[in-house]
Structure formats: structure tokens, C-alpha cells
Amino acid sequence: MSRIRVRPQVVEAVMRVPYVSARTDGAMMGRTYMFAMWLDETQGSFDWRRDLTAENINAFAAANLVTHAQGTVNTYRSTLMRVKRGGQIVTPVGKRTEARRAYTSMEFEVIERTIDVAGSEGEDWKVHLALSGGAGLRPEEIPYAHASWVHEGPSGTFIRVPNKKGTYRDVPLLGRFAETIRNAARRNEGTYLFCPELRGRANALSYMKRKIRGMHPSIVDYDVTRARHYWISRMLDAAVPATLIAEIADIHAGAHLLADLLSEMPRPDLDESFAALAAAGLSD
């Protein structure tokens, strides 16, 4: 009955979007139906003019998409926002999309504070944040990060991250993140650092989000890639040499990531440029 009630509104909303393909229309229709039926069931009605808002879309994601991968959540949101706008500029084939914006220090601190309400899951959640925003591991690397990857060298704690080619990169750890990973390696010796009890490793983050969601609903917004970009942007801001950043972050030749992150940083004025070049000995 809910589907029948919302049908006219859903069709009208989707029909406002310029036609691209039957597949695109089908995707918009299916996701808008899910959104509309959820609103109809929770609020008793649906009108796209009133209800198709960014706030409602975020609430829908938090209530229904917590077990989905972040990429899927982003796709649902962008599709519903496209229907909301009634049109969208289609990116020409071959052009890349923008990289996900790095978290600011304040945004990442807010995410870290959710540990306080995570109850018994707090330690695992803390480990995930240390591996993403503190060590810059990729989303696909974190579920498989093993206690055996953690090492102590003369200079401090580091993670030795293997790749599919049989080589590895060493990622230094500092401050609170180093302490978190050292403790996790001791606690989970011989197994995984994050959610070691799980057998299905690929969905480890979704599992964690589902468990914490009731205590802190905004956890659905956590994006591992943005946390990795936060870690890289901190190094850029601290003037760590680009070659070193590329090495420990495993940024390959041809990648646009550094350029994307640099574009968000404050641009130096002419006086700052002269001073920096002179300090580097380039005025000789």
C-alpha cells in the first residue's frame, strides 16, 4: 500500500530529471521509491516538493544504509540529490571525478569523540581510526591489517603493509596512534588488529557501523578515504617532502591525489613565496 500511495510523487520527481538512459531512470526510480516508502511509513505521507531535502536524505541513509559500503551510501545520496535538483550536468566520458575531500582536524576530532559512546566496541573503533586517519591505510587494507604487520624499530613503531606484488611499504606511527596500534597488536597477537573475531573480513567496517549506529547514528557518514586523505593532508601541511609522502602513502606515478589535496590548501602570497625560496637556498 505504501508503494501505491507514493507512486505518483515518485514518478513525477524522477520525470523532472533530463533523460540519459533507461538504466539511469531505473536506478533513480528504485532509490526514490525506497526513500519515499520509508518516509511514508515513518511520517504517513510523501511529497517530493516538501520531503526531498538533504536532511531527510541523510536521515534515510542513517536509518537504512548503515550496513552498506560507503561507496553505495554515496551513490544513493547522489542519486536522490539528483532527483531533488531535477537535473544534473553529466560528466563527459573520460573525465575523472574529484577526489573525496580530506577531513579537517576538527572534523576528525569529532569522529574520534564517538569512541566515548561506543561502549564495548570503543577499542575496535579506536583501532580503525588509528589505521585510517593515523596511518593512512586504504579502505581495503584495514580489515586485513594483522598484528604481525606491527614492528618496533630504532626510531619507533611502524606498520609494514604488504601488497599483491609481494613487496611492502613501511608506515611510521606517531603519538596516540602509535600507542593504539601497539596495544592492539599485543591484545590481538596472531590475528587481525580490527574486529579480530570476524571471519568475513571484507564487511568488517559495515559490521562495526551496525553495532555502533544505535549509540551514535552519525557513524554512517564515516568515510575511510576521507580519513586517509586527512592523514596525507597533515603531512603536506607540515611540509613533509612529497617524495616521502608518496612512498609511505603508496601514491603511484600518474595519481592525481597530491594535486587534489594541494588544491584545498591555502595559497601562499608573493612575499611568502620569496621567503620560502630564499630559505631553501634557491636565491644563489
Automatic annotation (TrEMBL):
Presence of keyword NAD: no
Single GO molecular function: DNA binding
SUPFAM superfamilies: DNA breaking-rejoining enzymes
GO biological process, one term: DNA integration
Alphabetically ordered keywords of this record: DNA recombination
Entries under InterPro entries matching the protein: DNA_brk_join_enz, Integrase-like_cat_sf
Taxonomy, superkingdom: Bacteria
Listed Gene3D superfamilies: Intergrase catalytic core (1.10.443.10)
Protein name: Phage integrase family protein
